[in-house]
Amino acid sequence: MRTPLRYRLGATLFALASLAGAEQKDAAGCKDHPLFTRMPTYWIRACTEKEFDRRAFAVGQGRTTEVEGRAWTFSYYPQATATVKPSDVQILRNYENAVLALGGSLVYQQKGKDTFKLLADGRETWVEVTAEFTGKYGITILQKGEMKQDVVADAAALAGGLAAAGHVALGGVYFDSGKAVLRPESAPALAEVARLLAADPALAVYVVGHTDNQGTAEGNLELSRSRAAAVVASLVRDHGIATARLQPFGCGLYAPVATNATDAGRALNRRVELVVR
Asked: What is the pLDDT of residues 52-80, one digit of tens each?
């Protein structure tokens, strides 16, 4: 026996009303960034987090600046049950006030999009908030920092570089910022240098430190010398390489391989190289 049409329509309307009254849950694995809460009655439709990425932030009319580091994105939607949705101006103003309360500043403002900059956990942090008239809004947060080098050239690749060009850069050698203290994660790269030298007992090299152009020329020369000396000391102490085969030298900022006008270029210029003697 068929159910009367009026009952079927009633059941459908009841189901739709139930769905409309259901609260949307955040997407799996998503939660607010520690810097900010969200607008009331909103849920996270999508989010991403990347250990290292690059984003272009608007800093003026037709001008952007590229920033690299740890990146988060969030897409916020209002609940379907919300009877009144905030305007795009209200959303942007809320985040502006939150950034100012954290000691940050508004870098650039345009229709529906604001760019902010602040210090968070001691790091320069950029924030972009976009808001739509529909009530939806998104946030991009990038905490400026350098990439951790995961790929390290092995001894054979280092030997090939020396044979081809007479010098080769050592990827995976890290120092504390502004210091000549080798960080523990440099161990794999230094082990490959030791393998290179052990495989060719006649090979002697200059260990050459390089810096970017931040700071004074004299200070960068001293820093580059000290970093080269730290690499030599580790190879001698930890791997038994004869001191006579290694000579440290510092070039400071005088031999860049990229522009010092960008973060990415400066990162390439801060390096240690092996040069055949």
From this structure: 999 999 999 999 999 999 999 999 999 99
Q: How far is CA 44 from CA 48, 80, 129, 138, 157, in A?
A: 11, 13, 14, 9, 46
Nearest-angstrom CA–CA distance, 9 and 7: 5
Whether pTM exceeds 0.85: no
What CATH class does 155-276 carry? alpha beta
In 3D space, the residue among 153, 152, 94, 150 whose CA is nearest the CA of residue 127 turns out to be 94
List the helix and strand counts (H, then E) for the chain: 6, 10
> By CB neighbour count within 10 A (0-12 exposed, 13-18 middle, 19+ buried), where does 230 fall?
buried
Local confidence band at 104 (pLDDT 50, 70, 90 cut-offs)? very high
> CB neighbours (10 Å) of residue 46?
13
- What are the backbone angles phi and psi of residue 81, rounded to the nearest 5°? -80, -10
| Sheet bearing 137-144, strands edge to edge | 42-60, 63-78, 137-144, 123-131, 113-120, 105-110
C-alpha to C-alpha distances, 59 to 44, 93, 118, 121, nearest whole angstrom: 27, 18, 14, 23
Strand, coil or helix: 271: strand
Reading the block at residue 104, the tokens are 């940050």
Q: Which residue has the higher pLDDT, 25 or 22?
A: 25
